[in-house]
Amino acid sequence: MAFKLAEKSLSVSIKNSLLTSVFLLLLILGGVSAMTKMRLTALQDTIEAVGRDRLPKLRALGEINLLVARVRSASYRIALTATPEQRADVERAFNARIATLDQRIAALKATLKDGSALKLIFEQFANKWTQYGKYQALILDPELAKDRLRYSEIVNVETEAHFQGVVDLINDGIKLANQEADAAIDEAIAESKFDSLILWAVNGVSVLIGLATLIFVIRDVSTPIHRITSSMELIAKGHLDADIPYADRSNELGLMARALTVFKKSLVENDRLNAATRTLSELSEWLQSAKSETELYDMISSVLGRLMPECKGSLFIYANSRDVLEVATEWNGKSHTASIHPEDCWSLRRGHAYVHGTSEIEFHCDHVHDGVNDNYCCIPIVAHGDTVGLLHLEYTFDQSETAEEAKARFADRARLGHACAEHLSIAIANMKLREGLRDQSVRDVLTGLNNRRYLLEMARRELLRAERHKTPLSVLTIDVDHFKSFNDNHGHDAGDAVLRHVGEILRTLFADDAVPCRFGGEEFVVLLPNTDMDEAVARAEALRGKIEALTIRYAEGHLPRVTISAGVASFPEAGGNFTELLRVADDALYRAKQNGRNRVEGPDHALPDADRIGDEAVAALATVRSVKSESKAA
User: Fold this and answer.
1) What is the 3-state secondary structure (H, E, C) of 348-370?
2) Looking at 206, 225, 242, which one is the last position of a domain?
């Protein structure tokens, strides 16, 4: 019974087991004591009965046996006494013995039970003794005693057999009485042995009950408590991967194991949050070292994906127009929304973080698709009082989690998301500030091209790369023909319009790895990595033709046709540093100006295949003009 209760209630099992064991042991000991008392009493009664019934009979039989022998010896003396006086004395003693013997026989016969074997034998003895009386008279005859030979025959032969029969019967009685006493004692001893066996059996049962109780306490109490205590010690020492047994039981051990499991999960979560906090601190330092927004967003997705593997996340950043937020990066899954409107998110509308799935009153954000579960949160990225983006986290349920565990874990992830948002806001704001300052320092405001400072930085870098990899590099120097006339005849706004259109064409034609820059005034420089002289001349001719076909509408009319002159120089033929390349390209540009403008010139020797390149440029220009005419006609 106790073992079945072990799964239900350990305390009840222990109590019932101990009470049952104690009750059974007390019951057994009480029964043993009572039985022992009864058997000792019975043995004592048997001994007393033997002493009371058997011993007096044996004593009486012994005395009768002795009296019979003494009567016979007295009879001999009577017969052999010579004088009458002596004979009279002997006869008085003989008669006294006969009287005593008769009294003893009558007394003993009265004490014997009717039908008992001893009484039957004793009656035979009494009858035999009575019959012996006639032989006794012969022995007492003094006349017969005078004939010694005859008397000896009577005493030793004729009466001896009858006397011996009397003696044998009394001896049989004594033997029977002894046998009855021995049988009673043997029966009592046999019963005591049986009682001893019962006592041994009872003691064995008591030992088994004690062993069963001991096994139960060791197996279901001591060992489980020791194992759970060992797990607690391991967890206390920081071994959070320690196994916790008996969590599936429904008794107190199961409650302890489940409580320890919850405590272990809390420690694991705390360690994870502490590790996440340390990681975020390290992340802040790394984010501050990012050289571009692309690298920054890659770092964010990599780290947050590992910090919160249960969450699918997206980082939205405001576009420059401030009317839409676009996905900058995402992790642990593809986002279903590439861009959102600020009005689509409750967190942006309310100005603080919005955690869905934890409150009684809540509404879905419009940017959340139907496949997202109820547990998600949106956290604004705020830096310097300005909202720069949105951190969106969607919790993914684990099948092994209960609803309460999932909500608790999601709450932890939401708090971790808030901490992440604080670090990200500073990093993103600093990056945008750096990008803005850098853009202002290296970009020309009028044309949108990079400026002279940026050109010099890129030129040093690309020249080192070209020298290291033994690859070509070319430089184009470009100048707008008669630019002063645009300012003088149409105003500076017209000159700015010309420069803007030229800058737009440069960005369009050199959108790959080329670096177009405004060098100053109406002068432009294009850095062409991995480009030799022939390809550089071809691209310069394409640029010249594109600009020559350009029509600039200004005020109520059109500005005069815009043309450019360009000079080309290539590394390593023109020099080993950017200053030499730029000088050679400038010399070529001056020759283009001297030779009539609206042309491309290389170093001081003739350009390779100049006629062919010119024909190709004219053909390209004609194609551009025809396409433009068709578009206007349409």
Assistant:
1) HHHCCCEEECCCCCCCCCCCCCC
2) 206
Separation of alpha carbons 311 and 4, rounded Å: 45
**Quick one: 484 and 404 in the same domain?**
no
Q: Please work out, in degrees rounded to the nearest 5, the angle formed at the alpha carbon of residue 174 by the alpha carbons of 171 and 177.
A: 150
Regarding whether 423 and 346 lie in a shared domain, the answer is yes
Cβ proximity of 137 and 106 under 8 Å: no
Query: Which DSSP symbol is given to 176?
Result: H
The mean pLDDT of the chain is 77
From residue 565, alpha-carbon distances to 214, 559, 562, 579, 597 in Å are 107, 18, 11, 20, 5
Q: Are 256 and 228 in contact (CB under 8 A)?
A: yes
Given a cut of 70, whether residue 290 has pLDDT beyond it is yes
β-sheet bridge partners, residue 571? 473
pLDDT at 333: 80
- 336 pLDDT band, cuts 50/70/90, is confident
Whether residues 468 and 369 fall in one domain: no
pLDDT greater than 90 at residue 177: no
Of 211, 208, 220, the residue nearest 2 (C-alpha): 220
d(CA 298, CA 423): 15
Residue 4's pLDDT band (boundaries 50, 70, 90)? very low
